[in-house]
Amino acid sequence: MYSPSQIRDNFDFASRTVAGRPLVYFDNAATSQRPRCVLDLQDELCRRHNANIHRAVHTISFEATDFYEKGRAAAQKFLNAASPDEIVLTSGATAAINLVAQCMARGGFIGQGDGILITEAEHHSNLVPWQMVCAQVGAHLEVVPVRAGKDTANDGAIDLDAFRAALRRGVKMVAVTHASNILGVVNPVREMVLEAHALGIPVLIDGAQGIVHRRVDVQELDCDFYAFSGHKIYAPTGIGVLYGKREWLEKLPPFMGGGDMVEKVTFEKTTYADIPLKFEAGTSNFVGGACLAPALEFAASLAEDEQVCTHEKALMSAMDKALGFVDGLFLAAKEAADRIPLYTFTIEGVHPLDAATLLDKMGVALRSGHMCAEPIVDRIGGGSMLRASLMPYNTVEEVEIFSDAMQKVVKMLR
Ligand SMILES: Cc1ncc(COP(=O)(O)O)c(C=O)c1O
Q: Final residue of a domain: which of 258, 275, 300?
């Protein structure tokens, strides 16, 4: 069982100061901090086990390969995938989604006149790759609206009637976020998979935010693809996970060619390695891959701990209170039925960039701008918003510091 201070004890950054004050790091949705178990392994691998994986027959290469494959096995376990073959290691969620988009197009699974369904609240990483495919093959985007904004119901829910109607307009691929990095709302992805599958349409879930705060069982979810980034869930940057159902990974052509993804190469013809290596061209980020093991084991140990769940609830109710105190604050998806600890907001008469700059001078790190989801932020936040996102290593005391700082900043800027 972890008490809030025991969780925090795992993080060296917890003792950092900014502007002479203890750092309140509330930009976790951009990247999380790494616990000591991850940093120690990262260091150990670089110092003692640094070799290229999969190729050589010497000891150090075997060691490095073994660590890397343990990372893959940890991702398999964390997602409850049926086999490690269904886990492709990429450089992040962005690379994973681009991989699926390009492979679907190159394999002829999306073509001229076909629809690709996304929602209005997608991160650019689950929008631009599909837009690129549209330009390549003559497909089009079907964008399903969400209920968010100042002048409408504001629960952040996807308009499921619009989703159902769009599915029937020649959609060949659904790509939807598990939890939006702006709204913080957890989408009914199981229901959406069921509806898409009833029409034979494959589904990719962008789990970059969802995986951090919800347990995911890809077999139960039955999605075709699930993508996430290591660095948002305690692992280093530059490593990501793409889960793909075996039947899809086997029939998709590879996206990138190079070393490690081949079986036999001649000038006339190349045959490819089996999955998942078919999709892992070039020297992989073996340190990042290996670090998925301690990172995901740490995440799982927190997720299974009742005391941590109670602490997360306490953080969220403290945040509700803190945001409620600010006069003129508009919170995106305020009435969300199921929210992760992620809050994106505007404050009347206060520019988000000014507020974030002043908050930094008080040691409080918040994100400002469009946060890589420009269409939704343009519509509900006038192009720029503020975002506070929390992890279990944050504390209620930090929320109180954030609350005081916000009050001061609003007074200074109005
Ligand atoms: C919902 C969502 N999808 C995708 C991404 C892209 O992740 P990365 O930049 O690590 O590839 C992010 C990152 O913020 C995100 O929040």
A: 300
Distance, in Å, from the CA atom of 100 to the CA atom of 202, rounded to the nearest integer, reads: 11
Supply 320's token pair.
């509700």
* Residues contacting 223, CB < 8 A, separation 6+: 189, 193, 203, 204, 205, 243
Q: Is the pLDDT of residue 151 over 90?
A: no
Q: Looking at residues 49-60, what average pLDDT do you find?
A: 93
Cα atoms in the 13 Å half-sphere on the side-chain side of 225: 31
- For ligand 1, whether the C-beta of 209 sits within 6 Å is yes
Closest C-alpha residue for ligand 1 atom 14: 30
* Beta strands 342-347 and 385-389, pairing class: antiparallel
Number of domains in the chain: 2
Range of the domain at 269: 41-300
Return the CATH number at 155: 3.40.640.10
CA of 308 from ligand 1 middle (Å) equals 25
The identity of residue 187, as a single letter, is N
- 344 and 285 in a common domain: no
Q: How confident is the model at residue 364 (pLDDT cuts 50, 70, 90)?
A: very high
* CA 211 to ligand 1 center in whole angstroms: 11
Q: Which of 245, 273, 300 is the last residue of a domain?
A: 300
pLDDT value at 1 more than 80: no
Q: Are residues 138 and 272 in the same domain?
A: yes
- CA 20, CA 101: separation in Å to the nearest integer? 46
Q: Are residues 190 and 54 in the same domain?
A: yes
Among 372, 374, 391, say which to mutate for ligand 1: greatest number of ligand atoms within 8 Å of CB. Answer: 372
Ligand 1 pocket member 344 (CB < 6 A): no
pLDDT for 132: 98
Domain membership of residue 237 (yes or no) is yes
Which ligand 1 atom is the nearest neighbour of the CA of 210? 1
**pLDDT higher than threshold 90 for residue 372:** yes
Active site residue 372: yes
Mean model confidence pLDDT for the chain: 97
In the predicted model, what is the mean pLDDT of residues 171-188?
A: 98
Instruction: Report the pLDDT value the prediction gives residue 155, as an integer from 0 to 100.
Output: 97
